[in-house]
Specification:
The chain has 370 residues and is α/β, with parallel strands linked by helices. It contains nine helices and eleven strands. Among the domains are: 1-112, no CATH class; 248-307 and 318-338, no CATH class.
Length: 370
């Protein structure tokens, strides 16, 4: 049975898919998919990125109504795009609300780390990517693959200080209707889900968290999550940051290697294309890259990787890009990607050290005031 990974397509390839093609949204991994042809009566099926946790039995549960809202939003995105046969693939032991088109098969394993008592003193890294368009040349999974490499690389670099959750492949894109294949779980749903993840981990004794985003659209909502979490749990330290390579070390690394001018690094750009050429070169179609740097720029509002200016706004993407790209993807190289990934991990390792220092010093100050 021909199965294909939906997230490995580019958005024009998604736009060309037949709308009666079955699409499967798995909860977890490890299913025996051999039964799908008879169940779906089809010769071709698209497999979406698996939701790695959240349901009962996944190893990291949230309240059922919050998880159902997240799944509903993802299914609704596809239905809105015209796909008529969308199914949630769930373990037979999982009960989902009525109204969701569910297929149950054996399997549904998660990649949750086997937390031990020693892990309680570590910072929990939550790499959060997204499934969205990345121009003509880069796949929908770009943000997820990059932040997975950064998050897992950080945990591997300091295993006594951090542990990483599996990468989460869905986030917020307010421009999703403009380019097929782009998802949007919705800002409120996103915030509620991630605060619930923190709730569950706090109930297990964890006190330090790094919500590590690989997608710009997630950033403002993650700021809200860490604010809610800090107010709800004064004894923890929960932090996020704007993407990666955005601090002094990262900025210097970008300037050391970039070839594009201001505006050349934003989305499906020199940076992201380079990282993907290093991580998954077989998914990049560099010959299709279209450089787009005609962003409507004013002194206080412009586009580049490290956003600048006093204004924050969210104008339609179509105002600034025909292909979905912001920047110079054609300038991407694997050599630059290897270097930038190395520095991104170094930057995040420094952040982990700061999270521990903040937690320790604040706890000591509170103890002194007793």
């Amino acid at each position: 049975m021909p199965l294909f990974r939906f997230e490995e397509l580019t958005w024009p390839e998604v736009a060309a898919l037949p709308r009666d093609l079955p699409l499967i949204l798995p909860l977890g991994e490890g299913y025996d998919l051999t039964a799908l042809p008879s169940l779906l009566r089809t010769d071709e099926t698209g497999i979406l990125p698996a939701i790695p946790f959240g349901w009962s039995g996944s190893g990291l549960e949230v309240r059922p109504e919050l998880f159902a809202e997240l799944v509903h939003s993802l299914v609704a995105n596809l239905l809105e795009d015209g796909f008529s046969r969308v199914f949630v693939l769930a373990p037979r032991t999982v009960s989902l609300p009525a109204g969701l088109p569910v297929i149950s098969l054996p399997g549904g394993a998660t990649r949750m780390p086997p937390f031990t008592a020693d892990d309680i003193e570590k910072a929990v890294i939550a790499p959060i990517g997204h499934t969205e368009q990345h121009g003509y040349h880069s796949p929908l999974s770009t943000d997820t693959l990059i932040i997975e490499a950064v998050g897992q690389g950080t945990a591997a670099a300091v295993p006594q200080q951090a542990v990483s959750l599996p990468v989460f492949p869905y986030g917020v894109s307010t421009h999703r209707r403009s380019f097929p294949g782009t998802f949007n779980v919705g800002g409120r749903t996103f915030e509620d889900f991630w605060l619930a993840v923190v709730d569950t981990l706090v109930s297990r004794g964890f006190t330090r968290f790094y919500l590590m985003s690989g997608h710009g659209g997630n950033s403002s909502f993650l700021v809200n999550v860490v604010k809610y979490a800090g107010e709800k749990y004064p004894h923890i330290f929960c932090a996020t940051s704007f993407l990666y390579l955005s601090g002094p070390k990262g900025a210097a690394a970008l300037e050391a290697k970039r070839q594009s001018p201001l505006g050349g690094m934003g989305h499906a750009c020199e940076l992201e294309t380079s990282l993907m050429l290093h991580l998954r070169p077989e998914l990049i179609h560099l010959e299709r890259a279209v450089d787009e740097m005609d962003f409507v720029t004013t002194p206080s509002y412009y586009m580049d990787w490290i956003e600048g200016g006093a204004l924050t706004a969210n104008p339609p993407w179509e105002d600034d890009t025909r292909t979905g790209a912001y920047g110079a993807g054609s300038l991407g190289t694997a050599e630059k990607g290897e270097y930038w990934l190395k520095v991104a991990i170094e930057e995040k390792v420094d952040h982990i050290a700061e999270i521990h220092e903040q937690y320790r010093r604040r706890r000591e100050r509170r103890m002194q005031s007793l």
